[in-house]
Design goal:
It is built from 25 helices and five strands. With 511 residues, it is mostly helical.
């Protein structure tokens, strides 16, 4: 990408860069990044498409378990979109889980290009080509963006309708038609991720600053608020009525859960997200971008106040997880880039800051884009699928809590779980006395205690036969190096013969 070409057709070249990085990440980043993006999206929707209910979230599944059906606190809109996808690929005969996920990652990567284009266009409209190019390049190639753009991270997916909401307000006068379209985009975004609805409150603050006449800002707030509520309702009410017979049942469950259980998650402090923002937005340039963003609160109020309200909400709310703040980062990049090019500064110093930021970002971008996370269990499940003889498996967790990605096994039969508190012989007896529960595979997942668990189980399962193992990837090892509390997960797969294993117990039962 040379300077001349960048000046002549910058958006095309920026989108080409973004597409290339996401294409590479789609092929290299097979594992899931965190629990929610796989087990609350892929496992859930894929099991529905196969006629199962992995998480027992649906009312009829709860009734079968003898429970009083209650909505889960999850937001089903994004999962439901994936259900449509999996029904579609199943219908055309694409039944290989790895292939299904590759197509899904490529689709997410392609979709994320819309966010790059919108961010560029917002900056172009407000400040011209130079800040637009800086915005576009950062949105295309910040170290974390390509890998997260191809995974099922709803905090990243929601960026597209949010920027569409902001683009409409930036490009057009705030007429009734414009406000209705912007409100519809905000409503869709809120339907994907409830918390971004806070941005609507920030926009009202921007209206108050923009209009001295109370009647005007109240009227405009009412228009955009009504539009947002209607489009949000369309993402929620049909599913709620079908499943629970009442509107906003999932939202109510979500609010109740967070009010009662937010303290069960990482707490951090009020400055947690400041550190995340400065780390993710290309340091040391990120320092200038963030403070430029704050400095311009009046000039770009309709961009700053909605995103700032979102940042403040998450900074004050007890549950603090780094990915929660991602929807606000494009606004810091856009507004910060505008201010960066508005302010006169020492050219040599500015060049040094940009060069250092590019170097740091590139050092992180290449290995992250080429890395998988949590791939050992994925590979183990896929290996068992290809063996073609899976009935059920016994899942043994040795060092930290984890879950088997059954989607890759193409088998939704219930599995049995074991850890350090399990009576191995007693569990084996239970299996043998209940033929429907007998496993023919044992899957061990852990790190330092893996060997001793394998030896213990061998003393009780005489037919245990080692078939394969899968180690953690480079990204897993790097994260473990940075924070030892993030446990490594090596996965070992053994076969057993349930008929031979249970022969002694059947003899005892007969006698």
């Amino acid at each position: 990408m040379n300077i001349k070409s960048l000046k002549e057709r910058p958006l095309l070249l920026i989108l080409t860069l973004a597409a290339t990085l996401r294409f590479v990440a789609s092929f290299f980043s097979e594992g899931y990044l965190m629990h929610d993006d796989h087990f609350w999206v892929v496992e859930t929707s894929a099991s529905w498409a196969d006629g199962y209910d992995y998480n027992n979230w649906l009312p009829w599944s709860q009734e079968e378990l003898g429970k009083d059906p209650q909505p889960h606190y999850s937001n089903l809109f994004y999962s439901s979109l994936h259900y449509i996808y999996f029904v579609g690929v199943d219908a055309v005969g694409m039944d290989n889980p790895r292939e299904q996920m590759l197509i899904l990652r490529l689709m997410h990567g392609l979709y994320s290009l819309i966010a790059v284009a919108l961010a560029y266009l917002i900056a172009l409209n407000l400040g011209g080509r130079k800040p637009a190019i800086l915005t576009g390049v950062l949105m295309a190639s910040l170290a974390w963006i390509p890998i997260m753009s191809v995974h099922q991270i709803v905090e990243v997916v929601v960026i597209v309708p949010l920027l569409a909401f902001s683009w409409v307000l930036t490009k057009y006068n705030w007429t009734t038609k414009t406000l209705i379209i912007a409100g519809a985009c905000l409503g869709i975004a809120t339907g994907l991720r409830y918390q971004v609805g806070v941005m609507g409150i920030g926009l009202i603050a921007a209206f108050v600053i923009e209009y001295s006449d109370r009647k005007v800002w109240v009227q405009k707030s009412a228009i955009i608020g009504t539009s947002a509520l209607l489009s949000f309702s369309l993402t929620q009410v049909p599913t709620d009525m079908f499943l629970w017979g009442e509107p906003f049942a999932q939202l109510k469950a979500y609010i109740e859960y967070n009010l009662n259980s937010s303290g069960d998650y990482p707490q951090g402090n009020i400055f947690t997200y400041l550190f995340v923002i400065l780390s993710l937005a290309a340091p040391p340039l990120s320092v200038y971008l963030f403070f430029g963003y704050l400095k311009s609160w009046r000039k770009y109020a309709w961009l700053v106040f909605p995103s700032l309200a979102f940042i403040l909400f998450h900074s004050l709310f007890p549950n603090k997880q780094e990915r929660f703040i991602l929807p606000a980062l494009p606004y810091i990049v856009i507004v910060g880039s505008l201010v960066w090019h508005e302010v006169e500064r020492n050219k040599k110093l500015s060049g040094s800051i940009i060069t250092l930021s590019i170097l740091i970002n590139l050092i992180l971008l290449v290995p992250i884009t080429l890395s998988s996370k949590n791939a050992s269990q994925l590979n183990a499940m896929d290996f068992i699928r290809m063996e073609g003889d899976l009935d059920k498996f016994l899942y043994v967790q040795t060092d930290s809590k984890s879950f088997p990605p059954r989607f890759y096994s193409d088998n939704w039969n219930p599995y049995t779980y074991a850890d350090e508190n399990t009576d191995v012989l007693g569990q084996k007896r239970t299996h043998c006395l209940n033929p429907q529960d007998q496993p023919n595979y044992i899957v061990f997942v852990g790190d330092s205690h893996l060997g001793e668990f394998v030896n213990e189980f061998k003393s009780h399962y005489t037919t245990m036969e080692y078939v394969s193992q899968f180690g953690p990837g480079r990204l897993d090892r790097f994260l473990n190096y940075l924070n030892p509390l993030i446990h490594l997960k090596r996965t070992m797969v053994y076969k057993i013969d349930p008929t031979l294993e249970c022969a002694d117990f059947k003899t005892i039962e007969t006698e």
